[in-house]
Amino acid sequence: xxxxxxxYMESCARCENTFMTRIERTRGNCWWIACAxxxxxxxxxxxxxxxxxxxxxxxxxxxxxxxxxxxxxGC
Length: 75
Prior knowledge:
Blueprint: E1 9-11, E2 18-20, E3 22-26, H1 29-41, E4 56-60, E5 67-71
Antiparallel strand pairs: 1-2, 3-4, 4-5
Transmembrane segments: 31-50
Protein name: LITAF domain-containing protein
Keywords: Membrane, Transmembrane, Transmembrane helix
């Protein structure tokens, strides 16, 4: 597993190509927990939840679509 927020060079074991990964940012469990706590107790500080670094980043092979790594965001 890598700890990258942005695409990086990787080789895919399935299609055996080297390429720049394709990323998707999604809201994981930590994001929802932080959102609930932030909205209840720290409403003015909830702007952090809009940042890309607060979301999970999934890295995929652009050729075959294999999930290569997940970088958990936030917590």
